[in-house]
Amino acid sequence: MASKVVALPIVGMVLSECAQVGLMIVSKAAMSDGMSSLLFIFYSNALASLLLLPISFIFHRTQRPALTFSVLCGFFLLGLLGCLIQVFGYAGIYYSSPTLATAMLNLVPAFTFILAVTLRMEILDWGSSTSLAKTVGTIASLVGAFVVTFYDGPSLLSTSSLSNVSYKKLLFQQSNWVIGGFLLLVDAVMTSVWVIIQASILKKYPAELILVFFYCFFVSILSAVVCLFVERDLSAWSLKSRTRLFSVLYSGVFGSAFQVGVSTWCLYRTGPVFVSMFKPLGIVISVAVGVIFSGETLFLGRLLGAIIIIVGFYSVLWGKATEAKIDKDLVSSLESSTDQEPLLQNSNEEHNSFVQKIRS
User: Fold this and answer.
1) Cys staple from 45: which of 205, 220, 279, 352, with CB 3.0 to 4.6 Å?
2) Is 172 part of any domain?
3) Nearest to 44 by CA among 272, 295, 248
4) Distance between CA 85 and CA 169 in Å, rounded?
5) Which residues in the chain come in under a pLDDT of 50?
6) Is residue 151, in this structure, part of any structural domain at all?
7) Reported pTM
8) Domain range enclosing 81
């Protein structure tokens, strides 16, 4: 049972990261077609809101917690942070490079782990093998992600000079590197804070799809307000281009609704550290997609980094699975002890009555 509890979130997070890689591809296509990042954020979240409005309330029709003012404020805070995260992320890529953006996002697991331990959402006991496994796994995943990003090594598959040149241009494109790096650092920190706040809200309001709906709704409202001031040209709002239309449809369905919904479901069941640990997996998936479908070169550094990330995942997953088994055994022992208490009480009463009879 414990393995099943951990296995379902694993599958969900792998699918979520696959959807995230697809989102990066279609968003890049939309930006190349001249679509602004703010409009892309607005359209994708607005479409996701329309999809999630009926689905969320139907799914939670029997058990729907009360919407209080504090919960709505929490939803708005998530939407505000989410909008800022997307804006800072695109701005950081614009000022630096996608390679630096990928590297900085790999800091999310570390920041999330530190925040979770500080806020007592994760227990760190250096004498416990599970805590040690999660810590070592987190560090290993970060190291593997940086190896994939910054180390090439010799090529393992046939390369073309054109793809090599393109990769080097992407790797060393560093216009306004300091500004871009700072924006991406802020993006990584805010993403970690977003995950922690989302986990705390789910404890008070355990309705994942409704939370995702309000998150997408507030992001679309906030981005629309900004777009009204920034995008004065009505032609920029057009979706006549097939590339723009397909990118928005994919982003709304798989990027915002599916990806955020699944990750929120997994977050509610496993915690923020487990979810953030899958961020480096996106690099492995993107490398695999690039090699299989785009004919990119497979370097030794990417393979070694992927192996290190997988080892880190196994370490964290073993720690989580062991903790789940320990918690299950503890609950079972408590239930059995509770069931035995009335029997002990009855035996004590019979003993007392027997002693009184002998005395009389």
Assistant:
1) 220
2) yes
3) 248
4) 26
5) 1-2, 159, 161-174, 343-351, 354-360
6) yes
7) 0.72
8) 2-323
